[in-house]
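Treating backbone geometry as a discrete language has practical consequences that deserve illustration. The sequence in question and its structure tokens are set out directly beneath this paragraph.
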Amino acid sequence: TFPPAETVHIACAAGLAGDACGWGPIVVRAEAGGGVTVWDVLLAIYEYYRRPMRRREVERVAGLGAENRTVLTEAYWARCARAPALPGYEIERGVRRVDCLGRGTMFWGLWVTVNTDGTWQMNLGVV
């Protein structure tokens, strides 16, 4: 980043969960001195969505809309089917945050919004 920033917060309202699970923003911290890098951002996004969901989070997301359970389940099975891991490994690991994105798992981009209080907010888009 320029000027160097040690921490960046990325807002993402994409997917089924939105703010319903209280996950908060993606927090990016600089791995090395000199501020947050593109690598830091991409790694933080990956790690954020790779986290497993708790049963109560899955139930909350499924309860938000009539089709949510179907979208979540289909995304889970599709992800498990294309995983390069041993058969059954991903299935045993369970539902992850990325499954809330449904089929929209391609990176679209990042953009900045200037908030009314003068702070900047980075936003994540997926398709």
The beta strands are 7-11, 26-29, 107-114, 120-126. The mean pLDDT is 86. The chain has four helices and four strands.
